[in-house]
Every structure is written in structure tokens, then in C-alpha cells.
Amino acid sequence: MSRSASDARAVGGAAVAAPAVRARLGPRGTELVETSLAVDVFATYAHEPLLRVRAGGRCWALPHTLLLPAGVAPLRLTVGRRPHRPGAGVALGPVLARLRADPRRFDGTLVALRALERTATGWEGRVRPVSYFAARASESLLDTSGLREREAQGGRLPPVGTGALAGDMGVVVLLQTADDRLVIQRRGPTLDWRAGLLSVTASGSLEPGPDLRDAVLDRAALLRGAARELREEVGVGHEDGLEMSFLGICRELARGGKPEVYVAARVGLDAAAVAARQRGARDAHEGAGLRTVPVPASGAALDDQLAALLAEADPALLAALLLDGCRRGLARIET
Fold first, then answer.
1. Which of 2, 95, 132, 175 could lock onto 183 through a cystine, CB 3.0 to 4.6 A?
2. Are 334 and 53 in contact (CB under 8 A)?
3. Which residues contact 288 (CB under 8 A, 6 or more apart)?
4. Dihedral angle sign, alpha carbons of residues 134, 140, 146, 152
């Protein structure tokens, strides 16, 4: 007998965050509205083709757009070495000064997606390095400088590689354990974005050093970046029987079109063993405890699971659960 979708087990204690997402019925389905934002992204990007997934008879309209779907079409991302400098027309100076003055901060190098398009033979694109400080500074000014309104002309995101935003590539990983649990992590209270909310097992950004070792990247290179984040935050790796599946690349509306690589992972450890590994992981301090939920056995169970998590979840977790549901045949993407 399958367990209820609401059967959640705490693997580490943490205070429950304020409600993060509410569901409302909109013209394109059940819209997942982030309550912490001062702007309604569904109205701001009214003409952007949303990621819409049907599960259990309901269509969920996510604050994302699908940039590159899962599949087998070849992907070639050419690596440029000249740094991308975001923020054209935006006064980044004061924000950058505050970031540089904080001794806890380190200005590492991330990866900016500067082009991506479908061709006759697959997908072609280009990436370049970008400063972490510049990426976060431009993103932080979205709704305080009029940047979002200028970027969202005609109710759409600007094309990839245009506009003032850095567009650094995020990584989102949802892990399944050997005892058929999905591991979710509460974000730490000191994080800049969505602190205290339930999210995916591991998340972060691609980094040029460990992740961009070749002149041309493919899906396998993106999965390497996801595996690195999983090891750093949770402490599991390929020696534990890790298997990874590419779920696609989405652009997140709340973050002005930030592209994020979604990955499903499975490991040959049970939930208790994963929790033990996480306590000793390098970046365990970024989280505030793990929790697990059952792998849903049907579209209806997946639908129930999302509804049960809404009050504590961030949109990335809900998107990952739905995309993973599509991989399992429990849901489908609607056009």
C-alpha cells in the first residue's frame, strides 16, 4: 500500500517559515504565486509562455518558462573566456560596495548563459564567466530600480543573452534515496534568497573551474555541475551509486529570467544514511535540516504532494517535483 503524499519525515529540525507560495486559479491553470515578491510575475510576464504541467487532473502554471526540455537532442555550449559584465544602464556601484565590504563574502566566478537556440541538429549556445557579486547585485535591483519593468517589454522576458541581467546558470537537484524517499532541504536562515523555505536537495550555480573544463559543454557537463553541488551540500557522490537525469533548463520569472538546470538524482543510500552524510558535508551550513517525502505513485499523489508543501516551499522545489513527475510518467508538460 502506498504512503500518503502528506507522509513527511523530518530528518533535521528547523522553524517553519512563513507561507511562501499560494495557489490561485488563473487563465492558464493553477498559478503558483510567490507571496514574498512585491510584484505579480504572472501579470508582469503576461505574454511569456509558462511552464504548465498537468498532474492528477490539474494543470499547474509555474512562474518559469521552459528554455530547453529534457530529451536527447545534442547540446553544444561554446565556452567564451572573456568575462561578461552585467548591469548596463543600472547603477550597481552601491550594491557592489556593500557586498565587497562584507568580510563573509567571497566574489567567486559563475557561468553566464549568453545565447541558446534550437538548430536543425540540436541546441547551440554560448556561456561566459561572470562575477558572483555582479550577478547578485543586478538581481537584487530588479524591483527597486525599475529594471524588471524595462526588461519585461511586451510582457515577455528579454531574449537569452540580452538585457542588463547577468543570467548566471543555476543548478537544481532533487535526490531520491534507495528507500524511495525524495530529499528536500530547508534553506538556511542567512541565505540571500528564500531563506528558511523548503527547497530541493541541493542548489547553487555552475562554476567555470570545476564545471567548464572543456571548450564545448554538453548535457554531461551540466550534470557534472549538479553532482558537484550535491556533494558539497549533502555529501553524496558517484561512489554511492549516484545516477543523474537531465530534466531541462528553465528560466525563473521571479529572478528576471535566471536560467536553471534541473536534475533528478538517485543514490544507493537510504534516507538515514543521506542525512548522516549531509551533517558532514562541506556546505552543510547552508541548509537548516533535511526532510523527506515519499516518491509519488500516481499523478493524483503528486498533485496532493504539491498542495501539502505549498505553505513552506519555494517555487524551485515545486517545479522540480513536477518535472520529475514528467520523467516518471505521472505528469505531462502542456503547450
1. 175
2. yes
3. 12, 14, 185, 186, 187, 188, 189, 196
4. positive
Residue range 51-86, pLDDT digits in tens: 999 999 899 999 999 999 998 899 999 999 888 888
CB atoms within 10 A of CB 9: 13
CB-CB contact of 225 with 208 (8 Å)? no
CA distance 323 to 199: 14
Element (H, E) at 8: none
184 HSE (CA, 13 A, CB side): 27
The one-character DSSP state at 86 is -
Alpha-carbon span 288 to 112, nearest angstrom: 28
Calculate mean pLDDT across residues 11-36: 74
Q: Which residue has the cell 528558511?
A: 196
Q: What pLDDT, in 10s, does the model give residues 285-326? A: 877 789 999 999 999 999 999 999 988 899 999 999 999 999
**pLDDT surpasses 70 at 6:** no
Closest CA to 151 of 256, 259, 267: 256
For residue 321, which of 299, 18, 16, 34 has the smallest C-alpha distance? 299
Task: Note whether 199 and 186 are within 8 A (CB).
Answer: yes
Dihedral of alpha carbons 268, 271, 276, 279, sign: positive
Please count the other Cβ atoms lying within 10 Å of the Cβ belonging to residue 63.
27
The per-residue DSSP string of 266-282 comes to E-SS-HHHHHHHHHTST
Reported pTM:
0.91
Q: How far are the Cα atoms of 257, 265, 300 from residue 3, in angstroms, in the given order?
A: 36, 21, 13
Please tell me the distance from the alpha carbon of residue 197 to that of residue 19, in angstroms, as a whole number.
Answer: 9
